[in-house]
Write a structure and sequence with these properties.
Length: about 200
Amino acid sequence: MTTTLGVILAGGLATRMGGGDKALLALGGRPMLAHVIERLRPQVSALVLNANGDPARFAQFGLPVIADPVPDYPGPLAGVLAGLEKAAQTGAVRIVTAAADTPFLPTDLVARLEAAASPDDAIALAATASGLHPTFGLWPVSLRSALARDLAAGMRKVGAWAESKGAQRATFEDTPFDPFFNINTPDDLARAEQLLAGEGR
């Protein structure tokens, strides 16, 4: 099995939730991040968390915490670079990213992304009928220098950068609901509680 590092992206500012860490909000009696870890950990060889600020606030999860390698919160593309740099240090040949505010991510995410990545050093992004979900992607470590250069030049859009590098797509069903449903507002959190109850978990 090819070594794939899982990277959970939690570096955002959560402005629509009033600031703070969305990943630590309670969902079904547990932090939202716990649901993401539970779904992603079995799919990867190792798992890290991309987050800025004091890493101690995530100590309960027992994951290495890696900060953005560029300043001023440039967005999830910086988290992808952080993951690629960590992978290069650990010998992983690629990473799979997932957003920390998406507690229903597919349990076959990595397998489907790997199947879509052709050739083997291609980027693959998750998609549904509604479009791309670019924070859910497979990224080869061989692209880290190009990403560092483009970030320094001002690139910020994850999907645009990936597609400029010939990204492939792995398409997922979005019924009975979109598995990439992410929690941005209090209303989203209430809906997630309903979805979680419907799953019986």
